[in-house]
Amino acid sequence: MTETDEPVSEAVTLRKIAWRLLPLIALGYAIAYVDRVNISFAALQMNRDLGFSATVYGLGGGLFFLSYAALEVPSNMVLAKVGARRWIARIMITWGVLAMGMAFVQTPWQFYLMRFLLGAAEAGFFPGVLYYVTLWFPETHRARAITRFYFAVPLGAAAMGAVSGSLLGMQGTLGLAGWQWLFLAQGLPAVLLSIVILFCLPDRPEKVRWLSAAEKAWLTARLAADAAGRSGDHPNPFRALLSPTVAALVAVNFLALGSGYAFTLSAPEIVRGATGLSADAIGYIAAAANLAGAALILTNGWLSDRTGDRGIFVAGPMLVVAAALALLAATEAPAAVIVGYVTYTAFNVAGLALFFTTPGAILHPRSAAVGVAAINSLGQLGSFVIPSLWGVARDATGTYHAGLAVVAANFAIAATIVLVLRARAKRGAFAQPRHGEAH
User: Fold this and answer.
1) What string of DSSP letters covers 235-296?
2) What would the pLDDT profile of 305-334 be if each residue is shown by its tens digit?
3) Model pTM?
4) 5 φ, ψ (degrees, to nearest 5)
5) What mean pLDDT do residues 327-351 have?
6) Residue 221 pLDDT more than 70?
7) Distance CA 21, CA 247 (A)
8) Quick one: which of 189, 142, 144, 179 has its CA closest to 31?
9) Chain CA centroid to CA 136, Å
10) Integer Cα distance of 92 and 188 in angstroms
11) Which of 117, 131, 194, 353 lies at a CB distance of 3.0 to 4.6 Å from 93, suitable for a disulfide?
């Protein structure tokens, strides 16, 4: 019996892959998320010190996603050619340096420029990781794989919440403001991790020594079987948009990502305005809520893979989020605001994490690198448009109530689209065959 004829344990093989790859890319994504949204805590001091209005802050916050969206497809095309290891390391070191550079912003135009450059630097990281997962995990295991690295988002946010108050408390140390220390301290890990990724992240299964020849052969066959059972090969991302299902996924991504980011940018300020709590206290509440979100992500992914259903586990959390935001729009009672904020934080990541299992299920591997990036990048435009309008509405009305009502409605619409697609798709993006069933 040759090595490739030896029996292969699916569980053992996938466990090897998961332990070797997922912790590293999860840590990278946690750091990416922190560097993307830490301005929500920095804003508690920065907007006051620099005299930024809600319009300036909302536009600057959203500009990150304008460059991010524009460069995601080119970035993923380069990743597919040069390999994940080198390209992800390049992404991380450039965004880490720019994230630290945010500490030296003084004017609105400097703020706009740095956020735009930060988005350009990070472009391609998340869709690149999604594509990378398709090279290592069969279809029936991707929801768990994606949610296991995506749950780094609430863990990263929990860590950010736990330390941001202390960093803001360094006001005046070495002549720097607390918000400047926050950017410097939270940008450095990306630079350090880029070195680790450069030396430790393998590009493809055939290049590693920790899988046997038999395990590599089994994995190749499983991935090929998944590809053979999938239609909708659209190498051109604009052709992919001709598919009504893909266009619907773009709409869901646009509404949910943009609305979530608009609220996240101002959430600490909203909580402080209603409760009068300190930055430290708000950070600890955020940390606890995000830990609950991490548990929900893992549970949601496990249930989705076990039932073979995608849609109900995407739409359900979105409806809960819509209700939480509607509560915040309706009242400023301190207890209700805390409940609404915690509920939003915990359930938002659970729904969004599983949403990103759907593009990989409807696109052929040859177009996955570009197709996933197209869906994500076009959807990311919502994270520019909606936060910008959110800031204008805040300055025009003097409160966040109108904006909160709109983003609540946006989540409800996104959930409805998902449920309609689920009802129409018997074996499409939202209802995948479980292991052992015919493809």
Assistant:
1) SSHHHHTTSHHHHHHHHHHHHHHHHHHHHHHHHHHHHHHHH---HHHHHHHHHHHHHHHHHH
2) 777 777 788 899 999 999 999 999 999 899
3) 0.77
4) -90, -5
5) 92
6) yes
7) 31
8) 189
9) 20
10) 10
11) 194
Instruction: Dig out the tokens for 325 from the structure.
Output: 């935001």
* pLDDT surpasses 80 at 438: no
The amino acid at 243: S
Tokens (6 digits) for 234 = 């659209």
The secondary structure element, H or E, covering residue 2 is none
Distance of alpha carbon 433 from alpha carbon 48, whole angstroms = 53
Complete domains list, the chain, with CATH: 3-424 (1.20.1250.20)
211, 346 in Cβ contact below 8 A? no
Q: How far apart are CA 382 and CA 366, in angstroms?
A: 27
Listed in sequence order, the residues at least 6 apart from 424 whose beta carbon sits closer than 8 Å to its beta carbon are: none
Q: Is 407 helix (H, G, I), strand (E, B) or coil?
A: helix
What does the block give as tokens for 307?
């039932």
Indicate whether 162 pLDDT > 60: yes
Instruction: Give pLDDT, residue 374.
Output: 65
Give 114's contacts (C-beta < 8 A, 6+ positions apart). Answer: 98, 101, 102, 105
Look up tokens 């880029």; give the residue: 194
